[in-house]
Amino acid sequence: AIANVPDDLDPIALGELFEAYSDEASSIDDSEVGEGAAREAMAAYRAGGQPAKALVMGIQIANFWRREARPMRDRARQLEGLEEELAALPAGPDRDDAAVWLRELVALFELDSMDVAAARPRIEQMRAAAIERGDDEEVLGVDANLGMLEVLEGQLDAGLERMGATARAGRAAGYGSIGVTTFRNAALFAARGLRYEQARIFLAEGQA
């Protein structure tokens, strides 16, 4: 579909097409293709007068940067730019959706920088807000972050158990991205905690 995009396609439809392509690349950990598609989607959304959707694509790019372990200083500057974009958006549902994604990105940055004191209240607030909205997928996404936080706080068993349960629940509910990503992170955190057999199990489950 990407190779045969008509020249006169509406920019919003073009943005949606590239966004779906980026999501697909993300699900198989192809960061290079995913980032490129996200940039195309971002440009299309901006051309179509949808700055909030463009911001979400910027957040998608930031997630690819995280996977690629880009330098923290570069990611911090990127976050600052995204927060400025969010502040400039008019109030409304699209802005609220973008804010949810950006809060998660900030929480992940805090986890990556080992700032657990800042991450704990942010993640707890995110979870409460997701429950209030009745967004089951978001609750699972936050639970995955909460599991990582628990490991970093020294609660290795509780954190790994939460991450494994979240990954299985995400897969069972049809949230493939949550399942794949959380199994991968659970394996990484298990290995960091010298739980190599548990890491092997998580990797096997993620590939099943």
How would you describe this protein?
The structure is a single chain. The protein has helices at residues 11-27, 31-47, 51-67, 72-88, 93-112, 116-133, 136-152, 156-172, 176-192, 196-207. The longest helix is centred in the middle third of the chain and has 20 residues, at 93-112. The protein is 81% helix and 0% strand. The protein is mostly helical and 208 residues long. α2 packs antiparallel against α3 (51-67) and α8 packs antiparallel against α9 (176-192).
Low-confidence stretches: none
The whole-number mean of residue pLDDT values reads 90
Structural class: mainly alpha
Radius of gyration: 17 Å
- Give the helices and strands as they follow along the chain: HHHHHHHHHH
Distance separating the two termini: 28 Å
The percentage of residues in β strands lies in under 5%
Specify the number of helices: 10
**What percent of the residues sit in helical stretches (DSSP H or I)?**
over 70%
- Number of strand segments: 0
Shape: globular
Largest sheet: none
